[in-house]
Write a structure and sequence with these properties.
- This protein has 217 residues and is an alpha/beta fold.
- The protein folds into two domains: 130 residues, Rossmann fold (3-Layer(aba) Sandwich), CATH 3.40.50.720; 66 residues, Regulator of K+ conductance, C-terminal domain (Alpha-Beta Plaits).
- The chain is built from six helices and eleven strands.
- Strands 3-2-1-4-5-6 form a six-stranded parallel β-sheet, with helices on both faces. A five-stranded antiparallel β-sheet has the order 7-8-11-9-10, with no helix packed on it.
- Strand 1, helix 1 and strand 2 form a beta-alpha-beta unit.
- Helix 1 crosses helix 5.
- The longest helix has 14 residues.
- The chain is elongated and about 55 Å long.
- 35% of the residues are buried.
- InterPro entries: K_uptake_TrkA, NAD(P)-bd_dom_sf, RCK_C, RCK_C_sf, RCK_N, Trk_Ktr_HKT_K-transport.
Length: 217
C-alpha cells in the first residue's frame, strides 16, 4: 500500500514509522527538511521537501499512484486544503486529516474526508483508518470514538453465528445484506456465504475486529 503523510511533526513522524514498519510504502512531505530527522535511521520510506498542497510537490510524491494520504501539519487550514485536493482532484481512496476545530471537522466529514481531532488523535487510530483495506467506513459517530463499517463476509465465517462476531460494549453486528434484502440479525443469526455485514465498533477495537474477521492486515 502506498501512503503519503504530510507533516513530519511528532505525530506525523510516528505514523510514518508505524506504517513503514507494517510494510507499507511511505512518502513523507514537510516544508522543513530538518523535520525528517524525527523519522530516525530505521525509516525506509521517502521524503519530499515542500508545501503539502503544492501541485508539484504532490506530484513528486507520486500522488496519482497513492492509496492513502494523511494530512497532519500544525495548521487546520492546510490540512483541510490538502485533504480536499487529495480527495477531489487526485481521487485518493483513503484520506485522513487532523483538524483541531471540531466544527470544521464535522463539515469535512460530510464531504467524505475522515477527520481526527486533537482529542481523538492517536497513531494506532490513524494507522487503522489508513490501512483498513477490506473494511469500508460508512459512518463515524461523535469525534471518531465509534464507527459503522461495511465488510464482505470472509468465507471462513459462513455458517458461524452473529454472537461469534460480537464483543459486548465494543463490537456489534447491526445489519446484514443478503440476496438484495437487509435483515436485522439476532445473536443467533447464522452468517451465509456472500453476506455483506454492517458492524458498529469502537475505534479502540479495530485490532480485535480484524482478528475476529480473520484478517492479518
Amino acid at each position: 500500500m502506498k501512503i503519503i503523510i504530510v507533516g513530519c511533526g511528532r505525530n506525523g513522524s510516528g505514523l510514518a514509522q508505524a506504517m513503514s514498519k507494517a510494510g507499507h510504502s511511505v512518502t513523507v512531505i514537510d516544508s522543513d527538511p530538518a523535520a525528517f530527522q524525527q523519522l530516525g535511521k530505521g525509516f525506509h520510506g521517502k521524503t519530499v521537501e515542500g508545501i503539502g498542497f503544492d501541485k508539484d510537490v504532490l506530484q513528486r510524491a507520486q500522488i496519482e499512484r497513492t492509496d492513502a494520504l494523511a494530512a497532519f501539519t500544525s495548521s487546520d487550514e492546510s490540512n483541510a486544503v490538502i485533504a480536499r485536493i487529495a480527495k477531489e482532484i487526485y481521487h485518493v481512496p483513503k484520506v485522513v486529516a487532523r483538524l483541531y476545530d471540531r466544527e470544521k471537522a464535522e463539515i469535512y466529514k460530510r464531504l467524505g474526508v475522515q477527520t481526527l481531532s486533537s482529542t481523538t488523535w492517536g497513531i494506532k487510530r490513524a494507522s487503522d483508518l489508513l490501512s483498513y483495506s477490506s473494511l469500508n467506513q460508512v459512518y463515524s459517530f461523535g469525534s471518531g470514538e465509534a464507527e459503522l463499517v461495511r465488510v464482505e463476509l470472509p468465507a471462513l465465517l459462513a455458517g458461524h453465528r452473529v454472537n461469534e462476531l460480537t464483543v459486548v460494549g465494543d463490537i456489534h453486528v447491526v445489519a446484514i445484506e443478503r440476496d438484495n434484502k437487509t435483515l436485522l440479525p439476532t445473536t443467533g443469526t447464522i452468517f451465509q456465504k456472500g453476506d455483506v455485514v454492517y458492524i458498529a465498533a469502537t475505534s479502540a477495537s479495530g485490532g480485535q475486529l480484524r482478528k475476529l474477521l480473520g484478517k492479518t492486515w
